[in-house]
């Protein structure tokens, strides 16, 4: 039972990472940048939904909606103000700017909501737990909802990328922005849309994360952000199935490491696995190796 | 002539002087002058059906080198050759075996006849996915030859260069650099073994000065370890002086010494190309590969380049292989030319032969076009 | 060999850098001794030196070698903790503070160099963003290990444990490293003078390395690794060289940093710290050693100076960071900045805009 329970919890945690990783991978694939601030957008999503639902006592659904709206707008704004002017700059410049944005979000949150951890009420609080095997295996509603939501999002994303016009535009821009522009694709709005979607997903991830792990602080988003980013790289950056696979695998590895080796070294193990995978397959699990033309 | 040869096998001078004339059709390639006694495997592809048949017979009469004589000594008369056109079957006695020079379509300048060829490619090939980018590439370049590699765009010429310099590892075939097999070498190892190259899109160290670019070329000629550098031991000062001296010498050859302190990225295009060549020469190579050195040059600059290439060969006594599209340059300066199309060699020979070769004209030059 | 000697050339070269540091040291030392510096700054002086050394060493990796390292603080931590352990041992052996300090510093450097080698060999086979993420991963691994490290010294020698202090099985010993509490009871041997020495040493190593055959090779690999290979340079060797030397220097900086405080927790060297050092490097100009010195000094002091606005200072820090990165790329500002050197000739210099070096020719 322990094994199964850990597995399910791992998949659930991994689902959160997967949703976050989707945002990272899409932005990297299309705008060719590492959005370090992505993890902090998650934190903002958590806070907004917290304020709406807990403090204002409204239906949690409003909280989720508000979080998605706010984060989407936030993502678009950040892109327009901080990243767009740097489209032609070296990736290091953009990275540092993203770091600045990350600090900005964390410190704004600190100022607005204070450093004291908030206790987050799960959005599915009160939903029944799932009891299996005569009560030996208890799965919380949060865990199930997280997994289901992740699955739904993945299906929607794949459909979106492959069946819609915007999705096609995104794929085109990720291959060759210049050619895409010549084909009449508005690269700017494509990139903005990418950020919007990524940030919206981050909001959902924030809500799910805080529902399962109810402590909310300005720094809550940072570590999951880093881990989700490594998950995206692990799965092959730029690949949507890769992000999901990487996220879920990472979640499983983390939970198992915590359960069987100990919480102290779980982080080290997670990162060690990443390193090993990248050394064996440098482009990630599902990534493509693009050779350089000499 | 066959009888003349019997019994003379042990006399190298006589053997080499007797170059066998191709007894086959007119369009067989040029006489094979290049047969260093021991190393060549019997593999050079000949053109023309009769030459092929002759080779096949020779092949059958001698299934594996070195095995025949053992056979003949121990099992006289038991070996029978299958011969199509009535050529002599394998005889029992080793002393009665008629040895013939192996036809090969490799050509080298006469002056390089007795030197090991600087480059021998045998059945070189590489696949990218299912695409045979280069297939069955055979080439021999003499020690001080200026050779040309031409062909339409996308024929695989730069790919050949990348194979020679191990940027790509060949899927098939052998590369002998000055007689040494370069199998498994990394690009830096093979560069240290004596191949240098320039690139189609210039690859300079753009943030460093002209002199520093040349000094990097001299990296393996003058040495100084990390610790000596950090602690500024005497070895550092001596080696830096040497670096500077040799770099300026090289730059002087091409009248670029006064540009020594200019950042390489700021040089005009022609100077950048020249710098790339100088940097390649700094590695004291045995073979210099130039990838479209005249790209973007006007006729005057091209003339200069031609003179420079000849000067390089004469002063440094090295071999040069050019990839070029400028037919003036190629026909004027190259001594041997190979033509590549769709990854395969379609013709090899002197400039005159290439200009007259119908396949080449059809594939590349365009009907009615002639070189310089 | 200097053929055309001129003061402006001397000033622009490494001697100018050394001069700036010496002059700055003298000024600050005088100010400190005469009581003209706020005590909080005086206490910070060795820390500033440590971060200068860390920034300069990271610039060796990012600017000279062209690789993005997001785990540099981990090498500081390796140096810090091994140095502290070494210092405890050396102090027990002889009672000469400066000797203990420098021996500890070199011990820390050696271990940091080893860590740099162990990390570098696998990491430097990757490139670009993958390399960056793996350095980040290694940084987190090292932090995680340090968080679980227990080291003690007693009469029978050194004891190590990765689980707890009781597992050290010591009798009446001194606990040097206490897991998540980090190094405790550190003998505070750092002084501003030692810091100055470290900065000069770091500069000497980096500047001497850059202007040498090895340095040219490192920069060649940065500018165009394919071309570097084509002239016979072993690219892995030189990337590793820069990485390991930088790790060693960061290790020394870690020792200096640690011995300026009574206790240092491993969390001090997490990815936030690595990124902070990276920010110093980028703001000072990638590849610009002098710039790293100035930016590290300013940015270490700034949060202290802004302490009166403590609530808002990190916010302002963040805004300034974004502004400095983004504004020069806004077209209107760009036009103004291009116009300026034509009016003020002394602003003309070799292009060293962030990003000039990384992501250049390739």
Give the total of domains of chain B: 2
Q: From the coordinates shown, what is the CATH architecture of the largest domain in chain B?
A: 3-Layer(aba) Sandwich
Total number of helical segments of chain C? 14
Q: Work out the largest interface and the residue count of each chain.
A: A-C, 44 and 46 residues
**Biggest pleated-sheet summary of chain B:** 6 strands, mixed
Q: State the oligomer.
A: heterotrimer
Report the average pLDDT across residues of chain C: 85
Overall mean pLDDT of chain B stands at: 78
Succession of helices and strands of chain B: HHHHEEEHEEHEHHHHEHEHEEHH
Strand content of chain C: under 5%
Low-confidence stretches of chain B: 1-49, 61-84, 368-372
Beta-strand residue fraction of chain B: 15-25%
SSE arrangement:
The complex is a heterotrimer of chains A (294), B (372) and C (362).
Chain A: H1 2-31, H2 38-55, H3 60-83, H4 91-113, E1 118-119, E2 130-132, E3 137-139, H5 141-163, H6 165-175, H7 177-182, H8 187-212, E4 215-216, H9 222-235, H10 240-260, H11 263-280
Chain B: H1 2-5, H2 12-17, H3 49-61, H4 67-74, E1 119-128, E2 131-141, E3 146-150, H5 157-164, E4 172-177, E5 180-181, H6 187-193, E6 195-197, H7 210-217, H8 226-230, H9 234-253, H10 269-282, E7 287-291, H11 299-316, E8 319-323, H12 327-333, E9 336-341, E10 344-349, H13 351-356, H14 358-365
Parallel strand pairs in B: 3-8, 3-9, 6-7, 7-8
Antiparallel strand pairs in B: 1-2, 1-4, 4-5, 9-10
Chain C: H1 7-12, H2 14-33, H3 39-64, H4 72-93, H5 97-123, H6 128-147, E1 150-154, E2 157-161, E3 174-178, H7 192-210, H8 213-223, H9 225-230, H10 235-258, H11 271-284, H12 289-305, H13 310-326, H14 331-343
Antiparallel strand pairs in C: 1-2, 1-3
Helix pairs in contact in C: 2-7, 3-7, 3-10, 3-11, 3-12, 4-5, 4-6, 4-10, 5-10, 7-10, 8-10, 11-12
């Amino acid at each position: 039972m322990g094994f199964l329970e850990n597995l399910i919890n791992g998949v659930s945690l991994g689902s959160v990472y997967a949703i976050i990783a989707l945002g990272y991978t899409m932005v990297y694939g299309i705008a060719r940048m590492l959005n370090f601030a992505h993890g902090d957008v998650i934190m903002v999503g958590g806070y907004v939904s917290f304020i709406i639902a807990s403090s204002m006592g409204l239906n949690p659904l409003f909280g989720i909606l508000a979080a998605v709206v706010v984060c989407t707008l936030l993502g678009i704004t950040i892109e327009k103000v901080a990243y767009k002017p740097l489209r032609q700059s070296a990736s290091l410049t953009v990275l540092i700017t993203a770091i600045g944005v990350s600090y900005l979000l964390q410190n704004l949150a600190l100022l607005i909501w204070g450093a004291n951890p908030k206790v987050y009420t799960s959005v599915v609080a009160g939903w029944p737990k799932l009891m299996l095997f005569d009560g030996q295996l208890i799965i919380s509603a949060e865990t199930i909802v997280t997994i289901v939501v992740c699955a739904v999002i993945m299906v929607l994303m794949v459909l979106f990328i492959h069946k819609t016009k915007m999705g096609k535009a995104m794929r085109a821009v990720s291959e060759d922005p210049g050619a895409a522009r010549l084909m009449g694709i508005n690269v700017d709005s494509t990139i903005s849309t990418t950020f919007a979607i990524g940030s919206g997903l981050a909001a959902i991830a924030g809500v799910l994360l805080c529902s399962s792990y109810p402590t909310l602080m300005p720094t809550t988003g940072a570590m999951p952000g880093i881990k989700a980013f490594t998950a995206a790289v692990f799965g092959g950056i730029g690949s949507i199935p890769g992000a999901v696979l990487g996220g879920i695998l990472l979640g499983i590895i983390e939970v198992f490491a915590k359960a069987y080796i100990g919480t102290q070294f779980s982080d080290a193990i997670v990162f060690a696995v990443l390193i090993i995978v990248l050394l064996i397959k440098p482009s990630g699990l599902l990534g493509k190796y693009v050779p350089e033309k000499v | 002539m066959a009888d003349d040869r019997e019994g003379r096998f042990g006399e190298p001078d006589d053997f080499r002087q007797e170059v066998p004339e191709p007894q086959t059709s007119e369009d067989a390639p040029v006489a094979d002058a290049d047969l260093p006694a021991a190393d060549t495997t019997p593999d050079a592809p000949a053109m023309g059906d009769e030459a092929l048949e002759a080779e096949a017979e020779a092949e059958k009469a001698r299934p594996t080198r070195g095995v025949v004589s053992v056979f003949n000594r121990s099992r006289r008369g038991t070996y029978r050759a299958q011969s199509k056109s009535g050529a002599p079957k394998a005889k029992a006695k080793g002393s009665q075996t008629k040895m013939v020079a192996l036809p090969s379509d490799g050509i080298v300048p006469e002056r390089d006849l007795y030197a090991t060829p600087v480059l021998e490619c045998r059945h070189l090939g590489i696949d990218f996915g299912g695409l045979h980018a280069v297939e069955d590439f055979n080439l021999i370049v003499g020690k001080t030859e200026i050779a040309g590699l031409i062909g339409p765009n996308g024929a695989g010429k730069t790919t050949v260069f990348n194979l020679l310099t191990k940027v790509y590892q060949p899927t098939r075939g052998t590369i002998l650099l000055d007689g040494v097999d370069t199998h498994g070498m990394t690009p830096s190892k093979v560069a240290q073994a004596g191949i240098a190259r320039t690139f189609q899109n210039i690859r300079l160290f753009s943030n460093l000065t002209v002199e520093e670019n040349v000094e990097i070329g001299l990296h393996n000629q003058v040495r100084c370890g990390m610790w000596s550098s950090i602690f500024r031991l005497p070895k550092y000062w001596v080696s830096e002086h040497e670096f500077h001296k040799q770099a300026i010498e090289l730059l002087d050859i091409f009248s670029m010494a006064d540009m020594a302190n200019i950042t390489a990225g700021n040089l005009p295009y022609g100077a950048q190309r020249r710098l790339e060549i100088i940097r390649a020469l700094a590695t004291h190579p045995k073979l210099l590969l130039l990838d479209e050195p005249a790209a973007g040059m006007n006729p005057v600059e091209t003339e200069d380049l031609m003179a420079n290439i000849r000067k390089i060969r004469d002063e440094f006594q090295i071999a040069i292989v050019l990839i070029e599209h400028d037919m003036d340059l190629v026909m004027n300066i190259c001594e041997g030319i190979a033509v590549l199309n769709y990854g395969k060699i379609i013709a090899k020979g002197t400039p005159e032969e290439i200009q007259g070769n119908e396949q080449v004209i059809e594939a590349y030059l365009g009907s009615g076009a002639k070189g310089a | 060999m200097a053929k055309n000697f001129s003061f402006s050339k001397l000033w622009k070269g490494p001697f100018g850098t050394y001069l700036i540091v010496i002059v700055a040291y003298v000024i600050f030392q005088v100010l400190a001794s005469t009581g003209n510096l706020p005590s909080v700054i005086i206490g910070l002086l060795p820390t500033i030196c440590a971060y200068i050394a860390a920034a300069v060493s990271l610039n060796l990796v990012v600017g000279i070698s062209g690789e993005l390292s997001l785990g540099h603080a981990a090498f500081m931590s390796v140096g810090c903790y091994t140095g502290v352990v070494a210092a405890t041992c050396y102090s027990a052996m002889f009672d000469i503070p400066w000797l203990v300090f420098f021996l500890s510093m070199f011990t820390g450097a050696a271990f940091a160099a080893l860590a740099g080698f162990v990390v570098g060999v696998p990491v430097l086979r990757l490139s670009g963003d993958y390399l960056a993420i793996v350095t980040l991963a290694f940084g987190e691994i090292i932090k995680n290990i340090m968080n679980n490290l227990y080291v003690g010294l007693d009469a029978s020698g050194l004891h190590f444990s990765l689980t707890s202090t009781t597992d050290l099985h010591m009798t009446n010993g001194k606990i040097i490293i206490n897991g998540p509490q980090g190094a405790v009871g550190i003998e505070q041997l750092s002084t501003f003078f030692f810091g100055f020495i470290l900065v000069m040493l770091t500069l000497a190593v980096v500047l001497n390395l850059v202007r040498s055959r090895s340095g040219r090779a490192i920069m060649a690999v940065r500018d165009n690794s394919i071309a570097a290979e084509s002239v016979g340079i072993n690219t892995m060797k030189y990337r590793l060289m820069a990485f390991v030397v930088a790790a060693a220097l960061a290790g020394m900086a870690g020792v200096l940093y640690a011995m300026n405080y009574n206790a240092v927790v491993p969390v001090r060297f997490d990815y936030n710290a690595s990124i902070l050092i990276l920010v110093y490097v980028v703001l000072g100009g990638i590849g610009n050693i002098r710039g790293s010195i100035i930016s590290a000094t300013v940015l270490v002091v700034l949060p202290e100076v802004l302490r009166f606005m403590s609530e808002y200072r990190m916010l302002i820090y963040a805004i300034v960071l974004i502004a400095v990165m983004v504004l020069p790329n806004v077209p209107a500002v760009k036009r103004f900045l291009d116009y300026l050197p034509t009016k003020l000739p002394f602003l003309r210099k070799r292009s060293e805009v962030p990003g000039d070096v990384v992501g250049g020719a390739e």
